[in-house]
Amino acid sequence: MPDDSKVVTVSGEIAAPAEMIFELIADPARQPEWDGNDNLAQAPAGQRVNGVGDVFIMTLTYGAVRHNHVVEFSEGRLIAWRPSEPDAAPPGHLWRWELDPLDTGRTRVIHTYDWSVLTDPERIQRARSTTPDRLRASLDRLKELAERS
Fold this sequence. Notes:
7-stranded antiparallel beta sheet, alpha+beta
């Protein structure tokens, strides 16, 4: 059973179709545009996620590279991944985006950071600093980008 104190979730409504919002999330090259943690620098183009088992590569702002292992996926509705260092098993934290179409032009978006099974003690402090405000910043930036498009 996950420890609820280690699961951070925010939600909000975006005035855009779920499919369009999903494209902004499922294309790693677009993620630095809306990252509220200001942690993502860039990802090579052509890595659009298409299903569970996909791995996309991201470079962080301080130069480290992460391999992101997709563990949940439903086209246009759900995507979740577990980051890891290259050639290493994911240490246990998870980023999830859920999209619920309300009508043709509005979508409820739920963003979750779950570190309830994080095993790397070196990452605990960083995990604790991933607060609802940081997730809200990503959601707000995604909203601005989606509604502007």
